[in-house]
Design a protein that fits this description.
alpha/beta, Leucine-rich repeat, LRR (right-handed beta-alpha superhelix), Jelly Rolls, TIR domain-containing protein, 592 residues, Rossmann fold, TIR_dom, 15-stranded parallel β-sheet, 4-stranded antiparallel β-sheet, plant defense, 13% helix, single chain
Length: 592
């Protein structure tokens, strides 16, 4: 074993002369080591990784002057460790775990000499009262975790000097005020302070609020849960954090938010749970990337504005918002269904969860029964005109966490089970089918079921395909290869154009039957001010697309129609030089 480099002896009780161990040892894991002190003659000259997690050691004992190669040191869960060693010899150390060392009272000041340290984990060290000022000299530090350090009262005043810091976790500490220098942390991405557990919820309104003067503009994730904030305590510059992706202000006491969301375009999750005094907050209509909205237990909240314009939303929780007017109308579901249909593979990947405090199914829901199951027949026009189907369940709040699935049976088809999904896949509905929806094992506590079918022509005022009037005039005509882009890029483009009020023509598959371009398509091209041509890989292989394009180019010459090409997964040079799949049209179309 002279050349042994890797040794794993977790939870082994061994003794003897450790000097006989291989001097080539690089990696040692001895979790649960029974020794109170690591012998000084332990071969550590070439150690790169040392794991002593959950050991009985009271002090490390190693002569760290000889541990010049050590990069990772794990002493977490060492309940008897009282002091850290002198770190002066560990110039190469990159990661230090000291989490849950419940007897640890202080960190040796030499920690500031660890020039290469990138991660310092001190979570759960409940007896640490302060961090040495030398911590601010850690020029490579990226992650600092002091969560659950309940005796820690302050952070070093010069913490802003750690320019490399990216993640600061400081939930459930004794810290009441962050140093003003924190705004100098220009690389900080993730800031989490306040509380995060049930104990914090109970004491939130008995303790003094945290105080934060200002925040770094670089922050993308901000967690200020259970800080006891009133509206006066919330940092005003939250509304200017243009890189913010996740915002959690749950458990605070403010009546309203003193900022709006107009400058937070990339926000993906917004959590305001347990804000029991919250009465209103700004419109969220510009948050097109928002996927999670949580407002549980906001009992004074009356109204939410902007829900109809959240194309990316996947989860909304408004449980126990007892004063809230039901914000989920037909318009909300129609807009969301349009958005979902515009995304490639969306039917298989996206689920929308909505939790609402209500005893009734809304009046606009066309089919309602007071029973745990429902049976209905799909109209014959469903396939051509449909946007989707809404299933609405009213059940006891006590079973929400257990209510897991419902069964959908289509006549002459195999039953399918769905787990809290709002968009069904695998059901090729053509119209005329008989459908049964029933709840699983919890059916005794489901009081009502509602079903509502969404139709495109009812909810969208702009013309589309056959439903368009021959006398209509369009602002935009979309030309595209249906098999390439109809259900992804083009659908998304069409939705966005219509959403901003652009009168847009898009054909349906019925208009493409036959060998000759239909009169309705021909007329729609002439009546459009702008033609957008989506040039995909197989565009030129379609005679329909080429006929459309010839007509479009003719209108450009005769009527000064504006033509905007979009190159979808196509090199523009192939179109310009008529090579690849576009070479087949050489001599028939002038692409310039």
């Amino acid at each position: 074993m002279i050349k042994l480099r890797v040794l794993k002896i977790d939870d082994l009780h061994i003794s003897g002369d450790f000097e006989l161990l291989s001097k080539e040892l690089r990696w040692l894991s001895w979790e649960g080591c029974p020794l109170k002190c690591v012998p000084s003659n332990f071969p550590s000259d070439k150690l790169v990784f040392l794991n002593m997690k959950g050991s009985n050691i009271q002090e490390l004992g190693l002569n760290l002057q000889y541990c010049r190669n050590l990069k990772k040191l794990d002493l977490s869960d060492c309940k008897h460790l009282r002091n850290t060693p002198n770190f002066s010899g560990l110039r190469g150390l990159e990661t230090l775990w000291l989490g849950n060392c419940s007897s640890l009272k202080e960190i040796h000041p030499s920690i500031g000499n660890l020039d290469r340290l990138t991660a310092l984990h001190l979570y759960g060290c409940k007896k640490i009262t302060d961090l040495p000022s030398s911590t601010c000299k850690l020029k490579s530090l990226e992650d600092l975790d002091i969560t659950y350090c309940s005796s820690l009262q302050t952070l070093p005043a010069d913490i802003g000097d750690i320019q490399s810091l990216r993640h600061l976790y400081a939930q459930d500490t004794g810290i009441k005020q962050l140093p003003g220098s924190i705004e100098m942390l220009r690389n900080l991405k993730n800031l989490q302070v306040g509380g995060q557990n049930l104990e914090a919820k109970r004491r939130v309104y008995q303790r003094r609020s945290h105080h934060i003067e200002s925040l770094p503009i670089s922050i993308s994730r901000l967690n200020l849960r259970y800080c006891g904030f009133s509206e006066a305590d919330i940092p005003r510059d939250i509304g200017t954090l243009s890189n913010l992706h996740d915002l959690d202000l749950s458990g605070n006491s403010f009546l309203y938010l003193p900022f709006d969301f107009s400058k937070l375009p990339w926000l993906k999750s917004l959590r305001l749970n347990d804000c029991v005094n919250l009465q209103t907050f700004p419109s969220i209509s510009n948050l097109e990337y928002l996927t999670i909205l949580e407002l549980r237990n906001c009992q004074k909240l009356v109204k939410i504005t902007g829900l109809d314009n959240l194309p990316s939303i996947l989860g909304i929780d408004t449980l126990n918002c007892t004063s809230l007017q039901n914000p989920f109308n037909e318009g909300f579901f129609s807009a969301h269904a349009l958005s979902i249909s515009s995304r490639k593979y969306a039917m298989f990947q996206l689920r929308l969860h909505i939790y609402l405090q209500s005893n009734e199914i809304p009046d606009w829901c066309s089919i309602q029964v007071t029973a745990p199951s429902i049976c209905f027949t799909i109209p014959s026009v469903y396939k051509k005109k449909s946007l989707g189907m809404i299933l609405w369940f009213v059940c006891d709040s006590q079973i929400l966490s257990q209510f897991g699935h419902f069964l959908v049976t289509v006549s002459n088809k195999k039953p399918l089970v769905f787990y809290w999904t709002s968009h069904y896949s695998g059901l090729m509905i053509k119209g005329g089918e008989k459908i049964t929806v029933e709840v699983g094992p919890d059916k005794g506590r489901v009081k009502k079921i509602g079903v509502h079918l969404l139709y495109l022509d009812k909810h969208v005022s702009f013309p589309m395909g056959e439903s368009s009037s021959s006398s209509s005039h369009y602002e935009v005509f979309l030309s595209f290869r249906g098999e390439d882009t109809r259900k992804n890029f083009t659908a998304h483009l069409y939705f966005r154009l219509c959403q901003v009020g652009v009168n847009t023509f898009i054909d349906d598959e019925e208009l493409r039957k036959g060998d000759v371009i239909s009169n309705k398509l021909d007329k729609a091209i002439e009546q459009s001010r702008v033609a957008i041509v989506v040039l995909s890989k197989n565009y030129a292989s379609s005679s329909w697309c080429l006929d459309e394009l010839v007509k479009i180019l003719d209108c450009r010459e005769r009527l000064n129609q504006v033509v905007l090409p979009i190159f979808y997964d196509v090199d523009p040079s192939q179109v310009r030089k008529q090579t690849g799949s576009f070479g087949k049209t050489q001599g028939t179309i002038n692409w310039s």
